[in-house]
User: Fold this.
Amino acid sequence: MNQRLSPGTTFLLVLPPLLWAGNAVVGRLVTGLVPPMTLNFLRWALAFVILLPVAHGVLRRTGPMSVWPHWRRFALLGLLGVGCYNALQYLALKTSTPLNVTLVAASSPVWMLATGWLCFGQGVSRRQIAGAVLSIAGVLMVLSRGQWALLAQVRLVPGDVYVLVATVAWAFYSWLLTQPKEPASIRNDWAAFLMAQIVFGLGWSGLFAGGEWALTDAHITWSWPLAAALLYVAVGPAVIAYRCWGMGVQRVGPAMAGFFANLTPLFAALLSAAFLGELPQLYHGLAFLLIVGGIVVSARRQPA
Assistant:
């Protein structure tokens, strides 16, 4: 693993946050065209079709690439990563802005720290606690819209709650990834590993979409803009970002790569201003600094 950042590696790590920010903006743009749970299902259904030619081996009944002997593992990963995380983000975008959603999601290292301590027996240092406090302060600034004096009376919009739940689900998902229980033949093949999660994730997301249609007045307004949006969220944030991020992490390691993930709110602010006319406020910038500062403090090593 090469710790040096070459221009090529930098590109691999910058592109995913840009695509993820675009995912939030596109999700906001199509809120009136397609229900959020249905959008998530269609996104991953298209990703399934795209990956099928190169990862169809996981669908075989037997063999080293078969996913079925490990169905419990991938059913859980598919629930958290494919079924819940993006669906809750799309649901959040109905009442919250892309910038708010990506800023709160940028606090995921804090929730990973808490999840590791509570569920996986991971120790927590004082430096990590200090970093967590800073990042949580950044999240509270977003949720209170910068009105600290009114924090006790702040009323969360539903989207704020949904993205918090999504971020906790992602933290648990990420910890599960650190404990590999699937064959190396699947884990070391990025397309097969993603396809194995999609196979079961489609079942979960299809179940959630079915509930959405049964319990709400869900409808789809088909149009070329919607088709283009579906193609983007399936190809860009799902497939291309996943592949580029995996290659970048392999080259520089997860610690360094994690700092690039915090470019997502910055890109979301720029794209929101360009396509939605939603200009960032001063408290957004301060929250961004608090969240990033907390992550930097948490990631620093203790002095010998």
